[in-house]
Amino acid sequence: MSAHHDAHGAAADHDGGAPHGTRKSYLIGFALSVLLTAVPFAIVMADGIVGPQTAAGICMVFAVVQILVHMVYFLHMNTKSENGWTMMALIFTVIVVVIALTGSLWVMYHMNANMMPGMGDMSGGM
Amino acid sequence: MATTAAGTEAPAFYDLDPHEHPAGGSTMLGFWLYLMSDCLIFAMLFAAWGVYGSAYAGGPTPKELFDLKLVAVNTAMLLFSSLTYGLAMIASDEDRRGATLGWLAATAVFGAAFLGIELYEFSHLLHEGAGPQRSAFLSSFFTLVGTHGLHVTFGLVWLAVLMVQVARGGLIPANVRRLQCLSLFWHFLDVIWIGVFTFVYLLGVLR
């Protein structure tokens, strides 16, 4: 019984604990984050290097990449920790977030576009 | 006939008693689930920002209000604090209490700097008459960024309490577990901030 318990405890200690990084992985993550933050700020602050549409696109792509970098290098996400349940919870959350965000924007955009003329659109003056 | 058939089958045993799990074995998964629910709160606030973000009601626009240099400095503070927290976790892995406390203190300094800059920005906006009551754009701005700031505030309180606990009790398993939870919380707040500086500040100024 005690042998079983010890083995169980050791196993839990080994892979049950949160995975952690090394100095190198934190520094790689940090360097990538600095780059992925600095470029969008530089593009927007330079004002006019690229068109606003392109700049917005670059900002969003860099944000997504930086979120992934943080997930991997700082939050140590992988498919194995807690038998994959952290990843399952993350995937579920991402799905709900995408539905909520796209749904809100889509519905409200159409509400706005279908407002009666003369009532003023939401970006108009009151 | 029936008895022989039953006799050839291997008996199956089901262990209905709960296993003995080490204390706190499920804490990290539970805390992760909490963070995911927190993520949903922020998703709703981002959705509100997406809908109201351009409803200026004839008031000031992001381009007139936001100072990107200040936001860049703020972003750097939070990023530095993420790095120092990571180094604190490595020091705790190596069982070096002094180094852990040192890196935690550095994290607290960067976190406090972030909060100070954000409060300065808020007071500046309020001073210019661009408070949350001015327009739907500013209401959603203050709600989203303020909620993030409140999270950082509570993270700092938690950090201070943990530093006392580590200083008193050392790097015992319970304290290491608490450090791991705060690690997730702190890095999670940095992830949310990526969304804030991109969608609120950068895209707001571009609009």
TrEMBL record, chain A:
<comment type="subunit">
    <text>Heterooctamer of two A chains, two B chains, two C chains and two D chains.</text>
</comment>
<comment type="similarity">
    <text>Belongs to the cytochrome c oxidase bacterial subunit 4 family.</text>
</comment>
<protein>
    <recommendedName>
        <fullName>Cytochrome bo(3) ubiquinol oxidase subunit 4</fullName>
    </recommendedName>
</protein>
<keyword id="KW-1003">Cell membrane</keyword>
<keyword id="KW-0812">Transmembrane</keyword>
<dbReference type="InterPro" id="IPR005171">
    <property type="entry name" value="Cyt_c_oxidase_su4_prok"/>
</dbReference>
<keyword id="KW-1133">Transmembrane helix</keyword>
<keyword id="KW-0472">Membrane</keyword>
<dbReference type="InterPro" id="IPR014210">
    <property type="entry name" value="Cyt_o_ubiqinol_oxidase_su4"/>
</dbReference>
<feature type="transmembrane region" description="Helical">
    <location>
        <begin position="87"/>
        <end position="109"/>
    </location>
</feature>
<feature type="transmembrane region" description="Helical">
    <location>
        <begin position="55"/>
        <end position="75"/>
    </location>
</feature>
<dbReference type="Pfam" id="PF03626">
    <property type="entry name" value="COX4_pro"/>
</dbReference>
<keyword id="KW-0560">Oxidoreductase</keyword>
<feature type="transmembrane region" description="Helical">
    <location>
        <begin position="26"/>
        <end position="49"/>
    </location>
</feature>
<dbReference type="InterPro" id="IPR050968">
    <property type="entry name" value="Cytochrome_c_oxidase_bac_sub4"/>
</dbReference>
<keyword id="KW-0813">Transport</keyword>
<comment type="function">
    <text>Cytochrome bo(3) ubiquinol terminal oxidase is the component of the aerobic respiratory chain of E.coli that predominates when cells are grown at high aeration. Has proton pump activity across the membrane in addition to electron transfer, pumping 2 protons/electron.</text>
</comment>
<keyword id="KW-0249">Electron transport</keyword>
UniProtKB/TrEMBL annotation, chain B:
<dbReference type="InterPro" id="IPR035973">
    <property type="entry name" value="Cyt_c_oxidase_su3-like_sf"/>
</dbReference>
<keyword id="KW-1003">Cell membrane</keyword>
<feature type="transmembrane region" description="Helical">
    <location>
        <begin position="31"/>
        <end position="58"/>
    </location>
</feature>
<dbReference type="InterPro" id="IPR000298">
    <property type="entry name" value="Cyt_c_oxidase-like_su3"/>
</dbReference>
<keyword id="KW-0249">Electron transport</keyword>
<dbReference type="InterPro" id="IPR024791">
    <property type="entry name" value="Cyt_c/ubiquinol_Oxase_su3"/>
</dbReference>
<comment type="similarity">
    <text>Belongs to the cytochrome c oxidase subunit 3 family.</text>
</comment>
<dbReference type="InterPro" id="IPR033946">
    <property type="entry name" value="Ubiquinol_oxase_su3_dom"/>
</dbReference>
<dbReference type="Pfam" id="PF00510">
    <property type="entry name" value="COX3"/>
</dbReference>
<keyword id="KW-0813">Transport</keyword>
<feature type="domain" description="Heme-copper oxidase subunit III family profile">
    <location>
        <begin position="1"/>
        <end position="205"/>
    </location>
</feature>
<keyword id="KW-0812">Transmembrane</keyword>
<comment type="function">
    <text>Cytochrome bo(3) ubiquinol terminal oxidase is the component of the aerobic respiratory chain of E.coli that predominates when cells are grown at high aeration. Has proton pump activity across the membrane in addition to electron transfer, pumping 2 protons/electron.</text>
</comment>
<comment type="subunit">
    <text>Heterooctamer of two A chains, two B chains, two C chains and two D chains.</text>
</comment>
<feature type="transmembrane region" description="Helical">
    <location>
        <begin position="70"/>
        <end position="91"/>
    </location>
</feature>
<feature type="transmembrane region" description="Helical">
    <location>
        <begin position="184"/>
        <end position="206"/>
    </location>
</feature>
<keyword id="KW-1133">Transmembrane helix</keyword>
<keyword id="KW-0472">Membrane</keyword>
<protein>
    <recommendedName>
        <fullName>Cytochrome bo(3) ubiquinol oxidase subunit 3</fullName>
    </recommendedName>
</protein>
<feature type="transmembrane region" description="Helical">
    <location>
        <begin position="103"/>
        <end position="120"/>
    </location>
</feature>
<dbReference type="InterPro" id="IPR014206">
    <property type="entry name" value="Cyt_c_ubiqinol_oxidase_su3"/>
</dbReference>
<dbReference type="InterPro" id="IPR013833">
    <property type="entry name" value="Cyt_c_oxidase_su3_a-hlx"/>
</dbReference>
